Structures are given as structure tokens and as C-alpha cells.
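Subgroup meeting minutes
Present: P.N., E.W., G.H.
Scribe: E.W.

1. P.N. recapped why we're keeping a running log of single-chain structure predictions: easier to compare across weeks, and new members can see raw inputs and outputs side by side.
2. G.H. added today's entry (65 aa).
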Amino acid sequence: MPLVLMVGIPSSGKTTRALELEQYFKEEHKKNVVVINEEFLKMDKNQSYKSKKMAKSVFCDIKKV
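Output recorded in log:
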């Protein structure tokens, strides 16, 4: 199964583009796509990255998925 990572500066449109790609692959290629982001992990984006300790916790949670 392919893995696509979206990286970039905050508020640069990564989630928006990932959701557009998800829609494209589902509609055009009938592929199952999972976008793993703060919403998927039920995290508050504004709170999750306030400190290095909290950000590290987020990255560990993402690795578990």
C-alpha cells in the first residue's frame, strides 16, 4: 500500500490538498484512502503543538496508527 506524506509550514494547505487527493482517488480510481491528521486522531490542532512535549506526544500517536 502506498504511503504519501505531506509536509510543510503551518497553514500552507497540507490538509486541504490531502483531502482533495483523497476525494480524487476515491472518485476516479475507486481506491480506499485514509487521511491521518489531527481531526482523524481527535486532537485540537491549536493545543497539540503548543509545547515540544505535547508535539512529541502527537508524533508518537501518529506513529501508532
